Amino acid sequence: MRAPREPARLEPPPQKAMPEMVETEGQETSEDDFEEFWCQFCGREDPSFTLPALDIHYWRECPMLSACKHCEQVIEISRLHWHLSEECEVREAAIEARRLQPDRCPLCQGRVARGMPEERDWQEHLLVMGCPSNPRGRSPR
């Protein structure tokens, strides 16, 4: 009798680093002033993006991000399957992750790419085509 196989562990997709913040004369600013006006996830440039406004964009507006419905952490949609199966501490998340496939959008279940989707595939699905189940819609560039 064979021993049961362990389920394969998902490798985390690459994650974009958040801009490093530095404190200058009592105010936090980004190391690169340009990044204050630019969303690193959806590419939106907006001169009204102060650091607090950019945080609000991440939490409420960016179409490349979504809040985990289990733990409420804001996650890149491209990493949501991995987050649910490996990172989220809420037990029901792992159960939900078993129903998802890594090549499909966790929001609409549409196929994002043949094989493992790359960053450009997610951008096409979420920003260009616009995922029909993304409540944040597409980013106005």
From TrEMBL:
Residue intervals of the Centrosomal protein CEP104 Zn finger domain: 39-95
A Pfam family: CEP104_ZnF
Matching InterPro entries: CEP104-like, CEP104_Znf
Region annotation (Disordered) ranges: 1-29
Annotated GO CC locations: cilium
Name of the protein described by the UniProt record: Centrosomal protein CEP104 Zn finger domain-containing protein
